[in-house]
Write a sequence for this structure.
């Protein structure tokens, strides 16, 4: 059972949320009166200048066959705390600017693959002429368990190639409902742009997909690729695989897939989770609850690496679990095995992408057997 001491510390400036209470109008009816209030929360992220790998293209891998439980490694995760560094904006203009308007695109994709894409051959035939449609068709085939063996591997490899262009490059493909264009104005920072455009990812993801070396690489008049909508994750314990999706329902698409490590003795809980409020941390410190050993930020021996994403259960069966999260590891050999105290481990470059895509309160994380 996970110790309460595993609960991560709250970051000082990396992920702050503000709540605003918006009163609704008082409604009166014949002889009766009722009052209602609508609470609107707008999450914000404070930029930091911590290390992020910006040139890595995520690797999509085919699920592995479940194997016998490997030898347990007593590795634990807990108590991350982030360091943050304020970013410098471009020069602020003397006159106020209008609210930026991006190229309009649907925020809730509903496009469904045509009948010709109900087979792997039909989906692959779409790649050259309709890469956006091909990605959707391949996702539906993979999610529907319609592919096995070589066809599954081909679909995953093709999705990786498609997303290298559709997601992890500065190009916005025609008809892509998950990306839009924003033109940089004087005074902009990535964090300001993300807030103004209601971006539901970390601002570092904008930096990544636009190939910016630093947050200060913005130029006035520059066109930026900006994501639309929330991203979600599904983890399949039997295959030690995390899939990251854009969108929900029939229109969702796989944007990346990564191998993961899980809890010893099958201790990783299942069910639906969300990102725990104020839990996302960059460059955290950590204290081993078993030995009391303390690891400072930037310590290369820190077992949880450079990122921590806390999780909170949203189902009756998993609401009581505390201290679980997604994080990096200094033991890459443990990925693909049961070795943690229940947390989900990832390679450092992979967890950086997951950190940028999964946000509170937008993202869901579903862990399946």
């Amino acid at each position: 059972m996970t110790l309460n001491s595993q609960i991560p510390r709250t970051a000082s400036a990396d992920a702050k949320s503000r709540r605003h209470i918006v009163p609704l109008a008082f409604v009166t009816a014949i002889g009766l009166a009722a009052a209602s209030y609508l609470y609107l929360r707008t999450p914000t992220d404070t930029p930091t200048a911590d290390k992020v790998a910006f040139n890595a293209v995520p690797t999509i891998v085919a699920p592995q066959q479940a194997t016998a439980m490997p030898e347990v490694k007593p590795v634990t995760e807990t108590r991350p705390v982030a360091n943050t560094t304020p970013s410098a904006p471009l020069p602020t203009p003397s006159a106020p600017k209008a609210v930026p308007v991006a190229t309009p695109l649907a925020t809730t994709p509903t496009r469904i693959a045509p009948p010709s894409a109900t087979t792997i051959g039909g989906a692959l035939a779409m790649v050259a002429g309709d890469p956006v449609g091909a990605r959707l068709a391949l996702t539906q085939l993979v999610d529907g368990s319609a592919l096995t063996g070589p066809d599954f591997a081909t679909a995953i490899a093709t999705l990786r190639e498609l997303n290298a262009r559709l997601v992890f490059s500065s190009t916005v493909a025609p008809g892509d409902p998950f990306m839009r264009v924003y033109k940089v104005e004087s005074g902009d920072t990535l964090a300001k742009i993300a807030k103004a455009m209601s971006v539901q990812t970390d601002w570092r993801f904008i930096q990544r997909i636009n190939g910016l070396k630093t947050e200060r690489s913005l130029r006035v008049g520059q066109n930026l690729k900006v994501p639309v909508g929330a991203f979600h994750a599904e983890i399949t314990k039997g295959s030690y695989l995390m899939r990251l999706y854009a969108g929900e329902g029939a229109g969702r698409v796989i944007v990346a897939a990564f191998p993961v490590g899980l809890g010893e003795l099958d201790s990783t809980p299942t069910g639906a989770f969300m990102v725990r409020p104020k839990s996302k941390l960059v460059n955290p410190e950590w204290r081993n609850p078993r030995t009391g050993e303390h690891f400072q930020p930037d310590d290369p021996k820190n077992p949880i690496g450079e990122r921590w994403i806390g999780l909170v259960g949203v189902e009756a069966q998993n609401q009581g679990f505390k201290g679980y999260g997604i994080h990096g590891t200094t033991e890459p050999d443990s990925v693909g095995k049961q070795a943690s105290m229940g947390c989900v481990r990832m390679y450092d470059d992979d967890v950086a992408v997951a950190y940028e895509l999964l946000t509170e309160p937008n993202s869901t994380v579903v862990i399946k057997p």
Remarks:
- Helices lie at 120-125, 131-143, 149-166, 190-196, 203-209, 348-357.
- Confidence is low (pLDDT under 50) at residues 1-116.
